[in-house]
């Protein structure tokens, strides 16, 4: 009997594998995330964020609202950048 990871985690891992082939400026243990509604900004965040409940809530919301078929090719979060920065700054303080 295996453990089933949510589709959010699986997609994030797939995005990380794709990015690691094309992006050499992402440090080990991190993932590039594209954030924004109109103008995308690339952020590099620790992979540990993918298991944090607040970050997972954001990813689940993105999956429900937008799916995962995004032209940027990586993990794309179409929310306001200030919302993403606020969330990740709280996660950074907690870790």
Automatic annotation (TrEMBL):
Q: Which UniProt keywords apply?
A: Developmental protein, Growth regulation
| Protein family (similarity comment) | Belongs to the ARG7 family.
Q: What is this protein called?
A: Auxin-induced protein 15A
Instruction: Report the source organism.
Output: Hibiscus syriacus (Rose of Sharon)
Q: Which InterPro entries match?
A: SAUR_fam
Q: What is the lineage of its organism?
A: Eukaryota, Viridiplantae, Streptophyta, Embryophyta, Tracheophyta
- Listed GO biological process terms: response to auxin
Top-level taxonomic group = Eukaryota
């Amino acid at each position: 009997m295996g453990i089933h990871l949510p589709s959010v985690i699986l997609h994030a891992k797939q995005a990380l594998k794709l990015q690691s082939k094309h992006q050499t400026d992402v440090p080990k243990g991190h993932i590039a995330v594209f954030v924004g509604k109109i103008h995308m900004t690339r952020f590099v965040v620790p992979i540990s964020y993918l298991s944090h409940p607040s970050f997972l809530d954001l990813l689940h919301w993105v999956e429900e609202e937008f799916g995962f078929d995004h032209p940027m090719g990586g993990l794309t979060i179409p929310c306001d950048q200030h919302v993403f920065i606020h969330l990740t700054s709280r996660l950074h303080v907690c870790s």
